[in-house]
UniProtKB/TrEMBL annotation:
Residues 18-171 form the Beta-mannosidase-like galactose-binding domain. GO terms for molecular function: beta-mannosidase activity. SUPFAM superfamilies: (Trans)glycosidases, beta-Galactosidase/glucuronidase domain, Galactose-binding domain-like. Pfam families: Glyco_hydro_2 (PF00703), Glyco_hydro_2_N2 (PF22666). It is an enzyme of class 3 (hydrolase). This is beta-mannosidase. The lineage of its organism: Bacteria, Bacillati, Actinomycetota, Actinomycetes, Jiangellales.
Length: 827
């Protein structure tokens, strides 16, 4: 049961016991009890702001009888955040870190019969405020001092997230009864040399007499006999004996003919089961542990060269071009993200041809489910330590908490082969430089020691075979500007904030870990979350669900250079969605065209935590935005793109596949009506994991009429387009489409096929299927058709819908709609 225990509690909640769910949170329990509105809808975020300023108490009773075990521990996998744990009136612990696990001895407090467990949570907002004074002011980017508490930073609001400071038992709690000994920690360090895999399993053992505190319960004085540690990796087993005084051991297992784990697109993802058993002399298992490992090598190549400093992730000695996206918590209430939801989101990443997810430092150390699924699917992962956009005190008690959470999570996550990089922080070194934090902290610590000393030291001890970068962005040394595009990793935010997205092309970076453009959620999500009448780009609910500073103004300015600004709300929604997709696609194609100088791009961001206008490709209800399809096109294994180069236009073939790519590049300059005006053909051969640029002759690359001509390049099945004019300056006419819509028997009862043939040039054809049904999803969109060309879109949707609904003007969209409408040329 849950009860408010202090603070500004409304009368209808004060004094009430509310059924509580564990894992869970105060917000979701109050929501389930009908005591608060859904904070994701309209302006309800403001209506529930009082929750984070209150204290809360969880209480439960359970029966227990002496069971013959020597030890009994309460194990909390996650407490959010400032908690006092009491069992039968005995205080077991006071905690102040969401990112740690806690094992608490319960022997002194357990009773034969009924037992009462109480966990009281102090207000996270008031605690952070007090700590900010005790630790001393440190700059941050929020109206709450999230850097003074070890709690999910974005829980206090972000430029895409609501201010919903949570409290609760957010991960499972168990009573662990054990005898003789237990496996306190297991670290399987998997390496591979040639065809032989090797696992060195580092094991910490706690024995029954190793009490963490004095106990009134008798502990047997007779020494435990020798035990065996038995480790099995796949089909191979090793065994060693350990005596009762030995608290650590290393068991090594060789795996001949080990198959290597590869990122998706580079090979398979074989995983090997690891089982550790602590056995008594009669072969009985006293304790056991299991996980999976993969055999692969990984390193981060930051070699200085004539162009600066590289930033290349190398797996099994193979440089991997990162086609990535940033990951934030998939829900403000993170306990609601179960394995199925992770699986859906990772499937969407695969759909977008993504091979790496960066777990951003303002969120959480992600769950085992997340990493297990990435292991299985070959999605590389990059885990930030949890520091974001702020200065952090390096003194106690914060320093001890940070080291403890790092140790907890390094040990938990290190078995996963998908984890290829640890990162010290998000943007803190860069912001210290650009925002002159050293002046603001006035000689106090600001976190640098964590990133350059503490974290690398702990990693060297616990996880020595995985690379670490002190920050993102990071130039390789403190002597170079932290966000220098020529050195290491960089973040490109000046386009969104001050410039135009075409200016991505002014950079030739070595690696980009963040860049992006905003767009609204899908229409179905928008209408579910916001009930404004009328709904406009600036109606109250829209403003509440736009958290970026000057976000709507930046959207408008960013659109006006490319597309007309519509007055109709549905046209505005489509225009902003299309512009977001166009911006990011241009950025990705530009970055990939400079490989191998540029070794990766990580789009901000894959997912959202609630319904909001943001940089995400998948909105807060889990629906793909047009951006996801644009990313899929730009991240395809084989990309053909036309790019400006100092001497004119060039066709760049990017081959991120294992096979050579050869053939004739055919380049044509066409008028919008399809008439060929000039052409050339050049043989091209691109090796595996390589790229090649082919200059376009001036007679093909030079238009007679910018607004009515384009260049089309083809190489095999791949095609690239170059428009000389922006949408708004082009002479696109109203889309003339012949459309056939029908159910698809071959796709089962929930499939529809939309076949489209263009009579004229139609840019960026899309079926916004969620406008027909919230669960309807198209397999592709943003397809440009030349006159006479056709495309087929497959829609996954519930049966019984009218197929023609997918061809309605508000559903079947194109860029032509917006440009032609501006001139009064409407369908």
């Amino acid at each position: 049961m849950l009860r408010a225990a202090g603070g500004p509690v409304p009368p209808d909640v004060a004094g009430r016991d509310v059924p509580a769910t564990v894992p869970g949170s105060v917000h979701t329990d109050l929501l389930a009890a009908g005591l608060i509105p859904d904070p994701y809808l309209d302006d309800h975020e403001r209506l529930v702001a009082w929750i984070g300023r209150c204290d809360w108490e969880y209480r439960t009773t359970f029966s227990w009888s002496p069971d013959g075990h020597d030890r009994h521990d309460l194990v909390f996998d996650g407490l959010d955040t400032v908690a006092t744990v009491t069992l039968n009136g005995h205080e077991l612990a006071r905690t102040a870190n969401q990112h740690r696990t806690y094992r608490l001895s319960a022997d002194d407090a357990l009773l034969d019969g009924a037992n009462e467990l109480v966990v009281r949570f102090a207000s996270p907002i008031r605690y952070a405020d007090r700590q900010s004074l005790e630790l001393g002011y440190r700059p941050h980017v929020n109206h709450h001092p999230y850097n003074a508490i070890r709690k999910t930073a974005c829980n206090f609001g972000w430029d895409w997230g609501p201010d919903l400071a949570t409290a609760g038992i957010w991960r499972p709690v168990t009573l662990h009864s054990w005898s003789t000994a237990r496996l306190a920690a297991v670290r399987p360090l998997a390496t591979v040399q040639g065809n032989t895999g090797h696992v060195a399993v580092h094991i910490d053992i706690e024995w029954r007499g190793d009490e963490p505190s004095a106990s009134t319960r008798p502990v047997p004085s007779d020494p435990a006999p020798a035990h065996d540690l038995v480790v099995t990796v796949g089909e191979h087993t090793s065994r060693i004996a350990v005596g009762p005084g030995e608290t650590s051991a290393v068991v090594e297992v060789d795996v001949p003919d080990a198959r290597r784990w590869w990122p998706r697109g580079y090979g398979d993802q074989p995983l090997y089961q690891v089982e550790v058993r602590l056995e008594s002399d009669d072969g009985t298992a006293v304790d056991a542990w299991q996980s999976r490992v993969g055999f692969r090598t990984v390193r981060l190549d930051m070699t200085p060269d004539e162009d600066g400093t590289s930033f290349v992730i190398v797996v099994n000695d193979q440089p991997v071009f990162v086609r990535g996206a940033n990951w934030i918590p998939d829900d403000v209430f993170v306990h609601r993200v179960d394995r199925d939801r992770y699986a859906r989101r990772i499937a969407q990443a695969e759909q977008a041809n993504i091979n790496l997810l960066r777990v951003w430092g303002g969120g959480i150390f992600e769950s085992d489910d997340f990493y297990e699924l990435c292991d299985e699917r070959g999605i590389m992962t990059w885990q930030d330590f949890l520091f974001a956009c702020a200065a952090y005190a390096e003194e106690e008690p914060l320093r001890g908490e940070i080291e403890a959470e790092a140790r907890d999570n390094i040990v938990r996550l290190l078995p996963h082969p998908s984890l290829v990089l640890w990162c010290g922080n998000n943007e803190n070194i860069w912001l210290c430089h650009d925002w002159n934090w050293e002046l603001q902290v006035q000689g106090k610590s600001w976190g640098l020691g964590y990133y350059t000393e503490l974290l690398p030291q702990v990693l060297a001890e616990l996880d020595p075979h995985r690379p670490y970068t002190p920050a993102s962005p990071w130039s390789g040394t403190l002597d170079i500007y932290p966000n220098d595009a020529d050195h290491g990793s960089s973040h490109l935010w000046d386009m969104w904030n001050q410039r135009d997205y075409v200016e991505y092309r002014t950079y030739r970076p070595r690696f980009v870990a963040e860049f992006g453009w905003q767009g609204p959620p899908t229409w179905a999500t928008l209408r579910r979350a916001i009930s404004d009448d009328p709904l406009t780009p600036e109606s109250p609910g829209m403003i509440i669900h736009q958290k970026a500073f000057d976000g709507n103004d930046k959207l408008t300015k960013g659109l006006a250079r490319h597309l007309p600004l519509p007055d109709d709300m549905e046209d505005w929604h489509w225009a902003m969605s299309l512009n977001q997709a166009a911006a990011v696609r241009l950025g990705i194609e530009h970055l990939r065209s400079w490989s191998p100088r540029c070794a990766g791009s990580i789009v901000w961001q894959l997912n959202d935590c609630w319904p909001v206008t943001s940089w995400a490709a998948v909105d807060g209800d889990g629906r793909p935005k047009p951006l996801l399809y644009a990313i899929a096109h730009a991240y395809a294994d084989r990309l053909l793109t036309i790019q400006p180069r100092p001497d004119g236009l060039a066709v760049v073939a990017v081959n991120d596949s294992a096979d050579r790519w050869a053939g004739d590049v055919v380049v044509r300059r066409l008028s919008y009506d399809g008439t060929e005006l000039a052409a050339t053909k050049v043989p091209v051969e691109v090796g595996a994991r390589a790229s090649a640029a082919t200059p376009i002759p001036a007679e093909v690359a030079t238009p007679a009429d910018d607004g009515a001509e384009l260049v089309v390049a083809t190489l095999g099945d791949e095609r690239a387009l170059w428009f000389f004019a922006e949408y708004i300056d082009s002479r696109l006419t109203s889309a003339r489409l012949t459309v056939q819509a029908e159910p698809t028997a071959d796709a089962g009862p929930s499939g529809y096929r939309i076949h489209v043939t263009a009579e004229n040039l139609v840019r960026d054809v899309a079926v916004l299927a969620d406008k027909v049904h919230p669960d309807a999803v198209a397999d592709d969109m943003l397809v440009t058709l030349l006159p006479g060309e056709s495309a087929t879109f497959h829609i996954d949707a519930p049966g019984g819908l009218d197929p023609d609904a997918f061809t309605a003007p508000a559903v079947l969209r194109s860029a032509n709609d917006l440009v032609a409408a501006e001139r009064g040329d409407r369908r």
